[in-house]
Amino acid sequence: MRGRDQFARYKWILTILISIYKCFPLWVRKSALERHRNMRGKLGLGLRYAILKSITESIGDNVAIYPGVYIFHPENIIIGNNVSIHPMSYIECGTESGGVFIGNDVSIAHGTTIMGTTHLFENHESRIKDQGVKNMPVKIEDNVWVGAKVVILCGVTVRTGCIIGASSVVTKSTNTNGIYVGAPAHQIKER
Questions:
Q1: Is the pLDDT of residue 1 over 60?
Q2: What angle do CA 178, 70, 51 make, to 5 degrees?
Q3: CA distances from 47 to 52, 131, 132 (A)
Q4: HSE-up of 175 (CA within 13 Å, CB side)?
Q5: Please, which residues have CB within 8 angstroms of residue 23's CB and are 6 or more apart in sequence?
Q6: Does the predicted TM-score (pTM) go above 0.85?
Q7: Using CB atoms within 10 A of its CB, is residue 41 exposed (0-12), middle (13-18) or buried (19+)?
Q8: Closest CA to 76 of 54, 98, 91
Q9: What 3-state class would DSSP assign to 154?
Q10: Among 178, 181, 176, 174, which Cα is nearest to 189's?
Q11: What strands lie across the sheet with 90-92, from one edge to the other?
């Protein structure tokens, strides 16, 4: 049975779980997400989805958050339909003006890092660690495939139809339907 069919089959259970989780304060739900981070199987997928749905501004149907995915400030993430985020990925959504937007039909391979923040370092008179961070949104549009161990930095938009090759570092926004590789990532051809 395909993932979309399984999601449709169990959606009523997920709806009940989401309603229950929404009764708890945000810090409890975030703690529950951390506690269930490494739970395997369909139960783990379902619990992470229900908890995340109760926290986020918006999350679509058929979203698979696999074991070992770290999502920091999950209240600042928006996820579309038919999205998979594979193990050992790290997503820092940032606070306030930051945030991460993931569109529909996006596959994020294992070991990917998405950063909605960056350290400030311009002041030569202060230590870098004391200068704080800047939040800048990251947007991954529809129909995108992010390869294994990719890094997407803050302020970047990965446009519709892109493929980002394994181990690439995306420092600038992409063109629609481009195939990108390297560090920093550059377009090698169009799909």
A1: no
A2: 105
A3: 8, 37, 34
A4: 9
A5: none
A6: yes
A7: exposed
A8: 98
A9: coil
A10: 178
A11: 70-72, 90-92, 113-115, 151-152, 169-170
